[in-house]
Amino acid sequence: MNRIASAIALSLLLATTPAFADGDNVSKVNGSITAESGKQYGDLSTVNGSIRLQDGSRSTGADTVNGSIRAGDGIESGGLSTVNGSIRVGTQAKVDGNVGTVNGSIFIDRGGIVDGNIETVNGAIGLVATTVEGNVETVAGDVTIGIGSRVTGHIKVIKPTANWLPISVGNKRPPRIVIGPDAVVEGDLVFEREVVLYVHQTARTGTVTGATPIPYDTPRAPSQ
What we know:
Blueprint: H1 2-14, E1 20-22, E2 25-27, E3 33-35, E4 43-45, E5 51-53, E6 58-59, E7 61-63, E8 69-71, E9 76-81, E10 87-89, E11 94-100, E12 106-108, E13 113-114, E14 118-119, E15 125-127, E16 131-132, E17 136-138, E18 143-145, E19 150-151, E20 155-157, E21 176-179, E22 184-185, E23 189-191, E24 196-200, E25 208-209, E26 214-216
Parallel strand pairs: 2-4, 3-5, 4-7, 5-8, 6-9, 7-9, 8-10, 9-11, 10-12, 11-13, 11-14, 12-15, 13-16, 14-17, 15-18, 16-19, 17-20, 18-21, 19-22, 20-23, 21-24, 23-25, 24-26
Antiparallel strand pairs: 1-2
C-alpha cells in the first residue's frame, strides 16, 4: 500500500505550497485539473479537486487527495492515486505505475495495461480485458478480474489491524472475489480474511490460500 501512503504525504506537502503551473506540471491545493485531449503533461497534482485526463492525453502521473480521477480512452500516464475518490480508466489505456485509492473504487476498461500494482482499502476493483503487470490488493473491497484479464502477480485481501488507524475499514461483509471467463492470475490468491471466491471454469490461477473456490460456467458469477 505504498502508493496510498504517498498520496497522504502529498496532501501535507501541497497544503503548504501555493498553486503553480511549472511547464507541463500542474499543481493545485483547491481546484480540479483537466488534461486536454492529445496533449502532453508532466505531473498533475491537487489536494481538493478531481483530475480528468481526456481521450489521448498523456501525463507522467496524477495524484489527488479529495477527488476522483477520470481517464478517457487511449490515455498514457504514470501512476494514478487518490485518497478519497474513485479512479475510472477508459479503453486502451497505458498506466506506467501503480493505481491506488483508500476510499473509492477502481475500474479499468478493455485493453488497459497497468505496469504496477492496483490497491484499495474501501472500494471495489474491476478489470475488463486488462493486463496488470503487478499485484492486486484490497482490504474490504470486492475484486472482479473480468473476462480476458491477466494479473502477473498475486491477488491479496489483507486483514485489517489496529495499525490501520486512523484509516477505517467500512465493509463488514466478506468481500466478493470473481475470477472471470478466460482470466489468468499467474500468482497466488491469498486471503487473510473471509471472502466469497468465484472462479470461472475457463480461468487459470495460482495456489489459493484462505478460501475455497466456487466454480461457475455462466457468463456472470452467481449473486451472493
